[in-house]
Structure formats: C-alpha cells, structure tokens
Write a structure and sequence with these properties.
alpha+beta; 4-stranded antiparallel sheet; two-stranded antiparallel sheet; about 15% strand
Length: about 180
C-alpha cells in the first residue's frame, strides 16, 4: 500500500457586509456580491421587519426559514434575488414576470427603509370563510396600492365581503 499526502486548495467567498457569511460554493459568489452591493438585502433576510421575506418567512424552504447559519442566510438571499430578478425558475412557477410574487419581492426591496414599513397576512373573506391569503409588506402611504394589488390577485370566484390584515378588517366591499 502507498500512502500519499495531498494538498487541496479551495476558494472561499465572504461577504464584506456580513463577514460571518462565507461559502466555498462558487455558484453563490454572485449572490454574496449582489447582497453586498445592495446591503439592505442582508437586513431584509436576517431580521423580522419584513413579514414577506424576513426571518421566519414561509417563502423559504423549512430549514432556511429561521436559521441564522451562513447557509440558511445565503439560501434566503438567493431566493430573494431570484424573485427580484424574475429568474427563469420563478417565471415558470409564477407564470409571469410581474406576478404578485415577483412584485412583492421588488416592493419589499424598494420600500424596506421607508417610514412605517411593516407587513402582515392579507386575507379575502366571503360571507362564510376566509379565502385567498398572502403575506405582503406595506407602509402607511402604500397600503391602498398594496391592497389594490392583493385584490387584483385574489380568487374572484367568491363574492368578497372584506379584506383583513392579520385579522383586522381594512377594506369592505359593498354589494352592487
């Protein structure tokens, strides 16, 4: 038997904004570079301020939802970046570049630093049951626009009576 000593060289990629985020996966170096160029992204995915894309968001696969490990953070950034850019994968899943799923990522990216930024569970209600629901971020100034966007997306096969955010009625729909 022969025994040999081998030296392995690998590249690591580290965020300049969040130095604890390091990977050896070359496919993630562009994700780190993008988040470093848009440093608000690190806040969006590591804090709870954004209900749609922050820590604990249901957008991310199970293991990446709440963990602060570098791998989980990078998974959240990768997903968020792909949504904002309307990547091919998300266009197939969402069926359009301007679907509400792509739109809400872009909205969060653009408005995260705005005064009063928050989010919640938007729900459509008919006479008997809650129907369509989606977690969206908003600000006091953009609430009507976000509600309009939600209403355009929700299931119109039901007669909508009201829209709620986190259980509180924010819009009623009058019968015609």
């Amino acid at each position: 038997m022969k025994t040999q000593q081998c030296t392995v060289t690998y590249w690591s990629f580290e965020s300049e904004v969040l130095p604890e985020v390091v990977t050896t996966h070359p496919g993630l170096k562009d994700v780190i570079a993008w988040a470093d160029e848009n440093s608000v992204v690190w806040d969006i995915v590591t804090k709870k301020r954004s209900k749609a894309f922050g820590l604990g968001s249901c957008v991310y696969i199970g293991w990446a939802q709440r963990s602060q490990s570098p791998d989980a953070i990078l998974e959240r950034v990768r997903t968020f970046k792909e949504l904002i850019e309307g990547s091919e994968q998300w266009r197939r899943v969402c069926e359009a570049d301007e679907s509400i799923f792509v739109w809400r990522a872009r909205f969060t990216f653009e408005h995260y630093k705005d005064k009063g930024f928050t989010g919640g569970l938007f729900q459509q209600h008919d006479s008997n049951y809650p129907r369509s629901c989606l977690v969206l971020d908003y600000t006091p100034e953009t609430l009507d626009m976000v509600l309009d966007r939600f209403c355009a997306w929700m299931d119109h096969s039901y007669e909508t009576k009201r829209i709620t955010i986190d259980g509180k009625t924010v819009r009623t729909v009058k019968e015609v």
